[in-house]
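Problem 12. The chain below contains 173 residues. Write out its predicted structure in token notation.
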Amino acid sequence: MTPTWTLRGLQVGDIGWVTHRQGILYAQEYGWDGTFEALVAEIAAQFVKNFDAACENAWIAEIEGQIVGSAFLVKVSDEVAKLRLLYVEPRARGLGLGHALTNECIGFARAKGYQALTLWTNDLLVAARHIYQAAGFVLVAEESHHSFGHDLVGQNWDLALQPAPTIDPQPLN
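Solution.
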């Protein structure tokens, strides 16, 4: 039987869980060091400290009361938001949860009037990249960097949310 997941808002204690689980999982799956966990902690702490409910949100995924994923949407400017900390526990992968969390971010960003949604990831996170591509994100930049104890290729992805209206040409008389 396929487990049923639900999405809820951020609660006290979730930031610690997100930081802990992402630190452990990325160490296990990719050999990343503690600087990745520190980055997650920094992003999550800034989200809580600067949270503006009018233009930002976070979603926590659960199965039978246990956290299995997260996604955060952070304001960059009046026109641009950023998808941060998308994560799905290994036991919950393949259930469509990554797509659902991404779509929640996109829907929220559209509802709040953002013109674009952006994100940063690394090229070796293939499953996440497939989710972003399926949602319509476009790769706009790549850059090699040394982070988390490894040589990596960082990627910036953008999604246009509110395309400018097209102007119909006026007929010539």
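Discussion. The longest strand covers residues 150-160. Students who got a different answer should revisit the alignment rule from Section 12.3.
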